[in-house]
Amino acid sequence: MRTFRGAWSLAGLVAGAAGLATSYFVAMVMTIRESPVVAVAESVIRLTPGAIAEKAIDVLGHHDKQVLVVVILLLMGAVFAYAGQLARRTWWAPAIVYLVLAGIGVLAVIDQRAATASDVLPVVVGFVTWLVCLSLLTEPVRRGELVQGVAADEPADGGELSGLHDHNRRGFLLRSAALVGVSGALAIFGRAVGAGRRHVEETRRLLKLSGVTSPRVPAAARLDVAGITPWQTATEDFYLIHTAIVVPAIEPTDWSLRIHGLVEREIVLTYDDLLARDLTEAWVTLNCVSNPVGGPLIGNAWWSGVRIADLLAEAGVSPDADAVLQTSDDGWTCGTPLLALTDNRDAILAVAMNGKPLPIEHGFPVRTIVPGFYGYVSACKWVVDMEVTRFSGIEAYWTGKGWGEQGPVKMSSRVDVPGSGDTVGGGDVTFAGVAWSQHTGIEAVDIAIDGGEWLPAEISAPPTNDSWVQWVARVPVAAGDHFVRVRATDRTGLQQTGVERDVLPDGATGWHSVDFTVDD
Fold it and tell me: 181: pLDDT confidence band, cut at 50, 70 and 90?
């Protein structure tokens, strides 16, 4: 089929361009400093001997970096065309080529300063795009190579066969054009989104918040046990759950909050209005309703913000109200019990986390923090609207999908040490972990080995009931295979239930259990 001469190379080029576009898009949306191609170029610069680098600067001047990127793109184009030719024979040969390119990209990305595991995601997305797009383009061509037993490079005899070849050619060109168009649009969109996010991130980085202090972990709040979860969760380690595909990037000057509904007077606050008020700071543990028993979707941080109770008092809440419908900039909603926003707990409009302005992913410029309630009914990131209302008149995002209406946190505890399947030395075995019952507090923690009697553990003494506690126990355990369970008791005397329930509809229950082995 002479009409397809060169189609394989073109397919490789189009698939390669699509992969570069998607990786660029993901890098921009994630506000990763640069795309994988630029990361490779920077690695080349770092590895280039000084004499050669100076020669390049002399010849190219300040255009040296742009020329390097163009050269890398041209080389990749040649490799993409070669991969397309390989696809004519087998699917796995171009996959190996793509894997090598992706490997180079990964090495370049992780060589960047302060790189994290998530920075590799654009490379992974690009690799998958290469495979998928090459298959979409070449499989129809491969099927069209033999038509009624006639080889593609043999001359066609009849109009029917020639017409089929023309049809295949047109289909191939249309698919190629569509992929090029989508890839170009994706790259442009990613650039636009990335530019906005980068400006917001730069604004956030330079922002100085008066009244926000750095966190100081109280000595009594933490226990010195190897392997235990830190009492303060680092911002970069704090769990992330949201429904936004692209999280909102809001300039502080563009943000405002409207408080309305069953109130005597409507209030509209700008970011400056909020910062002009007195700030409250507190340690608060947050956890997701989707967190299974012993799960990781929980963290403890130092939050700074303005008390919501004071704002609602100014608005003058109607005695008929029992809920506040919060709305995020991306349209997500949650219904929060009014009592939890107006009692003595530190329910706040948070502007800072661990002593710094909120990260974009955690709700910058403003989010809500309500101790004692799961995030799906309280923790509204990028909050822009609060409607004082009644539960009977609203349906929030997750409650409309079968989750419970009010969502108070259920007491729970977790074993961190030893880890599941660990082998430990004989004698006294150290057990440690965390326990929580936000806004009520933990009074005691007990453990049981192999279903035996409950043994008391030592617990830390944080200055607030709104955070978790650490616990530790050292118990002699004989050699062999064992398991340990943990349970907590809150400050009202309520004991954590061992009844196992799923996270639906309003949080999991049960005792966390870990299996381990003691050496002889």
Answer: confident
